[in-house]
Design brief:
Helix content is 33%, strand content 15%. Strands 2, 3, 7, 8, 9, 11, 12, 13, 14 and 15 form a 10-stranded mixed β-sheet that branches. It is built from 11 helices and 15 strands. The protein is of the alpha/beta class. 45% of the residues are buried. It is globular.
Length: 412
């Protein structure tokens, strides 16, 4: 047995995953029964990379101070998509209007955390880790996967696009994540050699994953079993992506990414957390046309994502949450753009909640160093998603209990 284990370790060192990254699960004890794929709730997280201008996303059109701060970038009340008598959506987000009218969209205002950081890297780490003090090296979704792994039908987390796994998916014990991108063909290899040799290595891994006796059911055996389970799920994923009945072609745009997610959900793959991103929100100059295009892509993609989920009868069990590392400065700059700011807004979509405008728009007459002040800690949103949607212990993930946001809670 010792020699076979040594061969397994050597094989794993030489193995490669092309267009695929995996965080191999480590030891964790779990006793809950796995839920059948097709019944679990699912969370799709959309990262708006670059620092989205929340002030021109959820627009306080009725506030004169807004128009004074944005002489070239402001939108009038005639152009915005009105949500109430005070705020409205950017006109590029017209695809969100039917979702808003159906009560399937929540607009969360004034989101942030204490002592905000205006560095892209530091601020993104804070959102990804769920820790403003940056004392942890794992991600909030990676830790979530540890708490929900027995309810997943395969890989706990899948990222669509991106060359590497983001910090948000970095796992605590038990977590596993797969990243798919389009730059190379999707294939899984167990090391050098042909299919016959790969098959032999796979059989060896399966044999080693079986404990020889009760005393052999130790940490190494557990890790080996989890590796086999992960590889089995990855092979199934390969079949769904490139087999004769492939889900659909893969593209770089947000719509294509979300359509791939919808296809995997419809096929019952079993993953409960999906992660996608849309880049370009660092709008320091000539902001209006770029921001218009990005927000239109965001709203269009999420709306059509849910239209596809309705066809497969999965819409009620899927929720989308957006976020960006920070907002922008209240005052526009001299380049018809905006610079790094602090508090901003985010969206939560899906037919499973109450929806509506959550919280008041931050005051434009009470700023902090020229930035909007936050009133809703982003960890309250995380905690609500964890406890009421994914049904795992938010305290175990975030290190503390946070009050839920009623508008985001799961409908009874």
């Amino acid at each position: 047995m010792f020699h076979r284990r040594q061969f397994l370790k050597q094989s794993l060192k030489s193995s490669s995953l092309v267009a695929l990254s995996t965080v191999v699960p480590q030891f964790v004890a779990r006793t809950a029964q796995a839920a059948a794929p097709g019944k679990d709730t699912i969370l799709v997280v959309v990262e708006m990379t670059g620092g989205n201008d929340g002030l021109n996303t959820v627009i306080p059109y009725a506030d004169d101070l807004y128009h004074k701060a944005r002489p070239t970038l402001a939108y009038t009340k005639e152009r915005v998509i009105k949500l109430d008598d005070h705020v409205g959506l950017h006109p590029g987000m017209s695809s969100f209007k039917p979702m808003w009218e159906a009560g399937q969209l929540a607009v969360v205002q004034g989101v942030g955390y204490p002592n905000p950081d205006r560095s892209h890297f530091e601020a993104m780490d804070i959102w990804h880790s769920g820790d403003p003090k940056r004392l942890t090296t794992t991600g909030w979704l990676g830790r979530t996967a540890s708490e929900t792994e027995n309810k997943s039908g395969g890989v706990p987390i899948i990222q669509i696009g991106g060359s590497k796994l983001p910090l948000a998916l970095a796992g605590a014990p038990g977590a596993g994540a797969v990243s798919i991108n389009q730059k190379n063909s999707f294939r899984l290899e167990f090391g050098p050699g042909g299919e016959e040799r790969n098959g032999t290595r796979r059989k060896l891994m399966e044999d080693l994953a079986k404990p020889a006796s009760a005393s052999d059911d130790d940490l190494l055996s557990f890790v080996q079993r989890r590796q086999v389970q992960t590889l089995t799920a990855v092979q199934h994923l390969h079949e769904l992506l490139e087999g004769p009945n492939a889900v659909r072609s893969f593209g770089a745009g947000l719509n294509q990414k979300l359509q791939l997610v919808a296809g995997l959900i419809a096929k019952g793959f079993g993953t409960r957390i999906f992660y996608v991103s849309i880049e370009g929100f660092d709008t320091h100059s000539n902001q209006s046309p770029d921001h218009q295009k990005l927000l239109a892509e965001l709203a269009d993609s999420i709306r059509w994502f849910y239209e596809n989920l309705k066809q497969s009868k999965d819409a009620d069990r899927v929720r989308v949450m957006t976020f960006s590392e920070f907002g922008r400065r209240t005052q526009e700059n001299n380049s018809r753009g905006t610079d790094h700011g602090a508090a901003s807004c985010l969206f939560v979509a899906g037919p499973s909640m109450k929806g509506g405008v959550v919280g008041k728009h931050p005051s434009l007459s009470d700023l902090e160093a020229g930035d909007l002040k936050y009133h809703t800690d982003f960890r309250r949103i995380y905690a609500t998603m964890l406890d009421t949607w994914l049904e795992c212990d938010s305290k175990a993930v975030l290190g503390a209990k946070w009050n839920h946001i009623p508008e985001l809670a799961k409908k009874a």
